[in-house]
Amino acid sequence: MSESEDNAEPAKLPLDAWHRGQGARMVPFAGYEMPIQYEGIVAEHEWTRAHAGLFDVSHMGQLLVSGEDAAQALEALLPGDIAALKPGRLRYSLLLDENGGILDDLMVTNVTAEGGEPTYYLVVNGATKWDDIAHLREHLPDEITLTHLEDQALLAVQGPEAATALRRVFRDAIGDLRFMQGTSFEFGEIEIGISRSGYTGEDGFELSVPAEHAETIAGRLCAEIEIKPIGLGARDSLRLEAGLPLYGHDLSPDTDPVSADLTFAISKRRRGEGGFPGAERILGLLADGAETRRVRLVLEGRLPAREGATIFSGDAEVGRVTSGGFAPTLGHPIAMGYVASAHANEGTALEIEVRGKRLPATVTAMPFVPHNYYRGDK
Amino acid sequence: MTRYFTDEHEWIDVDGDTATVGITDYAQGQLGDIVFVELPAAGTSVEKGKDAAVVESVKAASDVYAPITGDVTEINDALDGDPALVNSSPEGDGWFFRLTIADKAQLEGLMDEAAYKSFVEGL
What we know:
Number of strands of chain A: 19
Strand order of the largest sheet of chain A: 10-11-12-9-3-13
Oligomer: heterodimer
Domain Aminomethyltransferase C-terminal (chain A): 293-369
Organism (chain A): Pelagerythrobacter marensis
Keywords (chain A): Aminotransferase, Methyltransferase, Transferase
Catalytic activity (chain A): N(6)-[(R)-S(8)-aminomethyldihydrolipoyl]-L-lysyl-[protein] + (6S)-5,6,7,8-tetrahydrofolate = N(6)-[(R)-dihydrolipoyl]-L-lysyl-[protein] + (6R)-5,10-methylene-5,6,7,8-tetrahydrofolate + NH4(+)
CATH class of chain B: Mainly Beta
Radius of gyration of chain B: 13 Å
EC number (chain A): 2.1.2.10
């Protein structure tokens, strides 16, 4: 059950004592002691799908990129149309190396104040944040300022009752935010950045709060009847059911946006203009297709296939599982992996080898569990 | 009937030449929600300290070792339909398999309940 990614003594997050007080079991992850579960992964998973869960994702990196040409500077490193991103909007993007390999996946929010200089707020993965910061410092022009918001905690409230609970706590501050929109507000004297986003497939919010007030906010949120603290274990099973890739497992510098089935992150204008790292190769893959593709696989029975398991079509080895587990909402195992493109179409029957046994698996359109994002009143 | 424990968190009930094997309440608590248990087939041999079964939780797969060498005579079929029995009754209905004991001398060195309890408290 080790999640440790390095040998250094894990650091403590702002909510460490609070998690322990709530009965969390703590494990090392991404260099920090993190809550893996409270009452149990399945119970927490089901609670989040039915009500709302509070996730501490303070290990993730929160960065600000600011300066007159910040959008253009980011576009030199990411394939998204950052210039078209209006204040208060966010989008998913990818930090690419010069070959088009994926260094990280991240969220970019335009947080430019009215009349202020262009400013973008980035949330990057915890395990990669120091490398990301080094990469950004090296490649951003000198006129662009990069700020690491080390004194900010990040809380995610996810689930169908998240909005109800947050409106009770924060009143009108949430406004009429829709999926992939953000704002900020004062809660007493606490400045909170909020976006309607997350990584569980559910409607939900992410809140950036000063570390010194994280316990107050977490306690206040969990006082609501709908919200319970949820550990990393359920966060992982929720994101797997939502069909969302996990950096370091489903994505790496060896994967490109086309193979990774993330072509939506390459904005239309950028496809035409290029100018992002590895553009020539990636635009070639877009035109001609990649050799391999990330797929979602539904398994029969109850035996899960884990990361590293080999995928077969008949006797031929055609790919490898990059993340897999048991889906509590569905009651059977699911997996993601890369397979040769000829075997990537929906409905293709494949087999996954687990301890010498071949488990039948079918390529499915993702997500495994339908997304429940709030895109406005119907 | 005497119950012994290993430092790998298996328990073993010995009744004459037959033994019943499972994992402890402490072990199931560490593993979390169990979704699948892979058991050795009846008729196969298991060797003390070697892999005998695999427990799959939502999160990960974990090996279970044979606490003693012997031939498997019976497996707990109930785990096939309801693997969560290992969570709800780890030291009762959630047993894994039975075997005939090849060498009773191997029981020496295993812990009794009091010794195991203090071993777990020290973890």
